[in-house]
Amino acid sequence: MQETKQDWQYAPRSQDMEEIINRPPSWITLYGTIFMVVCIFGLALISYLYEYPDTVTGDLVLTTIDPPRPLEAPDDFPIARLLVAHEDSVRAREVLMVARSLATFDDVFELSERLSSNQDQSDAGLSNFFIPPNWNLGEIQEAVYELQEKQEMYRNLRDRRLDGLTTRELESRITRQERFIREQRQLQSRLEDRLVRNRAKLEQEEQLNTDGVDNRSGLITARRNVERTEDELNASRSEVRAASFDIELMRNQIDSYRGGLPSSLNQAGEDLRNAYDGLKAAVAGWENNYTITSPVDGLVLLQRDIRPGRTLLRGTSIGMVLPANAGGIIGRIDLPNKGSGAVAVGQRVLVRFDSYPYLEYGSVEGEVISIGRLPTGGITTVEVTFPNELNTTTGNHLEPGPLMEGEASIITESRSLLQRFFKRW
Asked: Which of 84, 157, 205, 297 has its CA 20 to 30 A from that of 213?
């Protein structure tokens, strides 16, 4: 009878075959065990020797010990004049740009200089503080008029100029001053009409210049015509105001004759000092509203689109000022509070700068030098120094740039795989 496949599979084996299967050679067991022990020992050694770090990551900005000062528009700021160029050296408090205003910047600047350099603060000195009538002071003109009125009042009481005049002589002077005021009003009307025409002509010339027409000469002439007419109009208004005040003084003198009312020189002096302080405050307010100044000595870097005629919205970035004595280069890391407790001074930092691809240039090694104690908005500030400057791990040298950004990894601890395994258990 022929054997089936199933019968062949389960046929009894010989005694020799059973012995070979059930008792493998002793050398296989020995060397196999040795090989397994060596493999386990090798893996344990590798796990002990191989370390990888615990890191805390944050965004880094490259700066200096004395950091750059950002420039922003404090309010909507239509640029009328740009007084510096990109990468110019500037001084602290130097005016960088001027906004469009009713006043002429040069006149306000000269007035500010005279106020700051005025050494005679006595009543007599303040009464002689001179402001040219042809200056265009725009928004602060009222404060100037107030000071000039108080000056005239003080000088009149001090010198008793009107005491020797009779009532009839005073009335005659009042009549002449009133006639002078009417003439000036007529002149102002003509000047205002001329100013409207000159401004319209200036707008046409500016539009032609914007369209690419080379009309430099016509543009300069139009601007001068506008400035000259404004100066004449302001001078006339100043004279009218002075004449009106003279009339008021003379009428007060007539009333004093009739009523016997005494005048106080001390009160006039106090009013004069208050008006002088008010003018200084008005000038300071104008400078705050219509100028942008440099906060420190240094180098100004302007955005490319900063130019006269552009209107900056509130908070618009204008550029920055690099301090003249900025100190060494450091990095500032905005570190999330989560995990920041493991960061300590002296720890290594690896920085990958965005402007230099990591795979090509490598990373820069730094060291933690300080940790902010007061987190703000869930962020802790960490400062990093670079002992090897900006030399990378691949031997490249990076050129620092203002506020260059990158990703920083702070190495808080290095442990082997074996240590991590046993720590879990």
From this structure: 84
Helix (H) or strand (E) holding 415: strand 405-416
CA distance linking residue 387 with residue 365, whole number of Å: 8
**161 and 252 Cβ atoms separated by less than 8 Å:** no
For residue 365, the cross-strand partners are: 350
Q: Place 9 in a pLDDT band, splitting at 50, 70 and 90.
A: low
Confidence of residue 1 (pLDDT cuts 50, 70, 90): very low
Which CA distances in Å does 54 have to 337, 372, 387, 397, 409? 16, 21, 22, 27, 9
pTM: 0.60
- List the structure tokens of 362: 């490598």
State how beta strands 298-302 and 291-293 pair: unpaired
Which of 228-256 are b and which e, b meaning 16 or more Cβ less than 10 Å from the residue's Cβ? Answer: ebbbbbbbbbbebbbbebbbebbebbbee
- What CATH code would you report for 53-66+326-424? 2.40.30.170
Query: How confident is the model at residue 399, as a pLDDT?
Result: 84
Q: Where are the domains of the chain?
A: 5-49, 53-66+326-424, 68-93+299-324, 95-293
The two domains 53-66+326-424 and 95-293 share their CATH topology (first three levels equal): no
Residue 115: band (very low, low, confident or very high) from pLDDT cuts 50, 70, 90: very high
Residue 329: strand pairing partners: 64
- CATH architecture under which domain 95-293 falls: Orthogonal Bundle (1.10)
Q: Are residues 56 and 412 in contact, defined by beta-carbon separation less than 8 angstroms?
A: yes
Total length of the chain: 425
Q: Which helix (H) or strand (E) holds 382?
A: strand 379-385
